[in-house]
Amino acid sequence: MDFNTINYIWIGVAVVTFLSLVIFKVKAPYGRHSNEQWGPMISNKWGWFFMELPALILMPLIALLGSSEKNELSYLIIGLWVLHYAYRTLIFPFKLKTKNKKMPLVIVGSAVLFNGVNGVLNGYFIGFMDPELLDLYSFHVYIGIAVFFIGMLINRWSDHKLISLREKQQGYQIPRGGLFEYISCPNHFGEILEWCGFAILAWNLPAITFAVWTFCNLSPRSLNHHEWYQEKFEDYPVKRKAVLPFLL
Question: pTM above the 0.85 mark?
Fold first, then answer.
C-alpha cells in the first residue's frame, strides 16, 4: 500500500468518524462530559499531556532523521508543528483549573493513536518522501502562515478566557466577548483554522489529511458543547452558533 493511499484511507476514517459522532450524537467523555462509564480514569492534566506527547515527539523526530533533503520551508513546517505541540503538551495541561477532574483512559488511548498517526504521516512525508522542495517565499506560504497564527491566537485567547472564568467563579459560566459572541467554541474554531493554515503553507497531502481530521474531530465536540450550553443556561444567546460563525 503506497503512502498516498494510506492518507486517503485515514481521511475516510475521519469522515466516517465525523458522520458517526454527528448522527449518533456521541459525546466524547472528557471535560464537562466526563463520566466513569467508559472505564478507568486518569488525571485530566496528565491525560492531556500523554494525549499530545506522541505528536510532539514523532513528527519532528521522523522528519529530522529522515534522509530527504530539507530546505527552509521544511524547517518552518517542523518548527510550527513543534510550536503548537510544545504548548499543548508542556504548558496547556498545567494551566487547567480543573482540580481533581479526570478523563477515561480510553479517550487518552484514542487520542494517542490519533496524534501518533498524524505525527508519523506528516513527519514521514518530510523525512523520507523526497518531496519537491517548494520555495519558502511562495505566495501560499505567506497565506498559510497568516492563517496559522490567526488560528493560534484565537485558540489561545479562547482557552485563556475559559480558564479565567473557572478562576473567578465556581462552576461553568456563559463565556462572553470576542468570538464567543458568535460561536460557543472559538477555541476549537481557532485550532481548525490553525491546521488549515498549516495545510496551505505545507501544501502536501498529510497536512491536508490532518486539517480534515481536525475539523472532523472538533466539530462534533463543538456541537456537543453548544447543546450542553443551551440545556444548562436558559438565557444562552440564541443566535450563537457552535463552531463556525454564522454557519454551524
Answer: yes
